[in-house]
Amino acid sequence: MQFQLFIPGKNWRLSLAELVSFLKAKTVKFVVFSFSREFFVVSTEEKAESSIIDALGGTIKIGVSAVDFPTEIVNRAFLQKDKEAKAQIGREIVASGLVDAMVKGESEKTLFGVSVYCAERPFRSISKIIQRFIGSFIKSEMSVYGKKSRFMGFARDRKLPQLSHVEVLKKNLVENKAEILFCIGRERTFVANTVAVHDPFQFQKRDVGKPVQRKIFAISPRLARIMVNLAACTEGKVLLDPFCGVGTILQEALLAEATAIGVDINGWCVEATTRNLKWLKDEYALENAEYRVLKGDVHRLSQKIGWEQVDCVTTEPDLGPALRQVPTTSYALRVTEKLEPLYYGLLEEANKVLKSGGLLVLVSPYIKTRSGTPVTMEIEEKAVDIGFERVYPFKRKHFARDASVPENLLAMASLVDAERRHKIGREIHVFKKLSEKDREATLV
Ligand SMILES: C[S@@+](CC[C@H](N)C(=O)[O-])C[C@H]1O[C@@H](n2cnc3c(N)ncnc32)[C@H](O)[C@@H]1O
User: Where is the Ribosomal RNA large subunit methyltransferase K/L-like methyltransferase domain (predicted)?
Assistant: First the structure.
């Protein structure tokens, strides 16, 4: 059994949902041992390839745990200032082999870093103290081996003692096994080695480096990748985006080694997506990548694509007009009402073009209002009428038997991605097309 640590991006629920869906689609046997907004501990039968970081839009770092012990010891060491508990942590780190791995590096002086992640608040306020202790301890251990080392610090105003993925990348800390993750969970604390970090430059290249861009309407490549993973889109599958815009979702589908089909009502978008996908294929040397981009209206999708042709439909339809200020509830309701025919058309047609069991991942608007209660679209009832079933992001079976999983997480039907500065956020839904047999069973 291998414990792996995943450090999520800003929206931890979205990151966890993506990770679970990705591992499931890749038929990896896994169980989420524990989770918090700061880190997830996942146990897998075999160590997952560190290259999976490039396939995940919502994971910042992956670590492999070298040792774990009860958080009670960390509590005694740093909250109760117990010297023996501190010494015990030191002994655990020595026994883990993490220092040996760094000593083996070829450079004369090893640069290393320590990042501390805390699931619970009391440790957060003293996390800089914990980080300095671990750093000094490792430095003195390295000198025992006769190895010079430098402990990577950061600006005083940094809130939490955590190296950013860019810092880890720039200082080659993954290659040198030189970033230690000290992850303090509610029950257990894990000390790990970073084995992979998210490369923001690659995602940035696909965002602002592609030939045709459309800033206001386009989704980010990271969110597009998360949606592709929520759709269980793996190698050899066929993914359709019927509102493809400039092709951001399709780019990520091609990188997941799927066949991509794009449709848009706007001829300019068809042209733009075609250019962007050609660029991606050359830039990433995807010799076998297959794609088609067609002009068409979502209401006639099945005539264009044919029935039961695709494994996943992953898409972001229009989200309504851009808003200068947070609207009133009645204005927001008018916006969603106006969008209904488009969304209902999508549900009808997606159900026809999807193979049985195929997934539809779609974004609908999440409009903030002056009253404080957001306005969203009621699409579940219509989707169920048509023959879909909602897929909940989190199921009890994904978590370890003794992991504490709040009921409200399991009851969460959709995922929301809304930054503070946005007036309209995105609500992300996953629906599964039921087979005729399953449908009949639900009607009985
Ligand atoms: C929010 S944008 C999608 C942006 C896309 N995800 C991207 O990253 O570029 C919605 C797209 O839907 C297209 N569209 C609007 N109504 C449509 C319809 N009835 N059928 C097909 N496409 C439509 C628009 O032209 C627009 O490009």
Answer: 218-277
